[in-house]
Hints:
Blueprint: E1 4-6, H1 11-17, E2 22-23, E3 32-33, E4 37-44, E5 47-54, E6 57-59, E7 67-69, E8 71-72, E9 90-95, E10 97-102, E11 109-115, E12 121-130, E13 134-143, H2 146-149, E14 154-156, E15 158-159, H3 164-169, H4 172-180, E16 189-197, H5 211-214
Parallel strand pairs: 2-5, 8-13
Antiparallel strand pairs: 1-3, 1-10, 4-5, 6-7, 9-12, 10-11, 11-16, 12-13, 12-15, 13-14
Amino acid sequence: MSRLFAITRSIEEVVAEFAVDVQSATDVPSETIEGMPGLIVFKKNGVRVLKSVPWGFPRKSRDGPPTRLGLVADLTNVMWEQTVVDPRYRCLIPLTHFANPDGPKGGKTRTWFSLHRQPLVAWAGFCRNTPEFGAVFAGMTGEANEKVRSLNERMPVLLRPNEYEHWLTGDIQDVIKFQFREPLPAEDFDVLETRDRWQSGSPPGTAILSRSNRSML
Length: 217
């Protein structure tokens, strides 16, 4: 699973889609990579709060300062044992697109994936205050569908709107079921192949299309 996602909708649309009660985030980042801010929605005192926090939990390093880990792939890892079981640490990560690197080493480009029937979607996430980085979040990954699998065997665990509350309040067995269920169907996804270099910073809304995408227009 790559470490890049984006939101191409307004903050007003995010607030409406996720029924936010308290809005402390005002800007929508053009893209999010590990260590950079992303939007999350979590529950506090029974209400939904929208906030901007950096992506990536601290991961200890033997020889230096902690690095970032933004993906939760193994729920049994000791790093997550206190976080994944407690609904207080669940969040929804709004996105419209996630990307995977495509092409040869040294010349990789951005290929974006999005749901054409649900422009704004929630990635199942976890959030917590940490001594090293303060408030942070990470996203849970699962098996990729056929469209994504050509570039990566894993993809974000994406939620339908009627699953938002279940994710925020369910127990650890619910978390396990979400991670190991079938991924959302490949036919529900649009693929945007671009000529933008992987580290270009170019969001999907300004993408330079690849020849294969242009031929479909």
